[in-house]
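Figure 3 (text version): structure tokens given as input.
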């Protein structure tokens, strides 16, 4: 009985921490705050995810962007958009193509992106950086030391992904070849490596400017 009461208290604390967090709350941060082993946190969070699902609440606890976040149900998005008057911006086809190439080939330099697309991609990369869907993760150790790009945590948040391994296979990009980490100089302690991601192109993909309040909107 004591263990049940302790679990209930920890769940309540976790709920509050996740609720007030501006971004998905990671297990490492939860452990740091609560001093609870990760395996116990994972068990409690799994139970909380199931509790939200079964209770048919207006929000769900979701594992996204290498952390946990409360998100409104996708089927309620029309009403939430009407309430919040969310500013929505559609990604252009060139932006989607470039984002897909970055996700598949990261770490990747602009020259390699332009080889695949066949056109100048500087403006599109600038747009994706501005939307924080990609980030600069280093410089390549070759003449000119070009910038190296990869996807960001916001990329995972926007597409509702736990990590890059959840991205579906995209047959359209099978010919791109494997990514290469040779000669990468990291910036600000960022790791230049990482597993090869997969991304599904979506012509109708929308980037929503999130509200600051939790739970977060999931549309």
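Below: residues designed for each position.
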């Amino acid at each position: 009985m004591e263990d049940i009461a302790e679990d209930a208290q920890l769940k309540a604390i976790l709920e509050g921490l996740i609720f007030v967090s501006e971004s998905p709350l990671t297990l490492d941060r939860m452990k740091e705050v609560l001093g609870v082993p990760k395996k116990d946190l994972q068990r409690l969070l799994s139970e909380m995810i199931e509790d939200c699902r079964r209770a048919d609440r207006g929000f769900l606890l979701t594992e996204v962007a290498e952390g946990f976040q409360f998100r409104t149900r996708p089927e309620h998005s029309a009403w939430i958009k009407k309430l919040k008057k969310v500013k929505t911006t559609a990604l252009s086809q060139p932006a989607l193509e470039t984002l897909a190439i970055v996700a598949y080939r990261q770490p990747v330099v602009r020259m390699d992106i332009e080889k695949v697309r066949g056109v100048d991609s500087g403006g599109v990369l600038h747009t994706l950086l501005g939307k924080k869907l990609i980030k600069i993760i280093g410089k390549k150790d070759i003449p000119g030391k070009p910038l190296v790009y990869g996807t960001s945590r916001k990329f995972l948040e926007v597409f509702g992904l736990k990590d890059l391994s959840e991205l579906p296979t995209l047959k359209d990009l099978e010919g791109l070849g494997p990514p290469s980490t040779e000669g990468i100089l990291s910036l600000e302690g960022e790791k230049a490596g990482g597993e090869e991601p997969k991304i599904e192109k979506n012509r109708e993909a929308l980037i929503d400017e999130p509200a600051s309040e939790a739970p977060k909107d999931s549309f």
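The chain has two domains: 2-84, 88-208.
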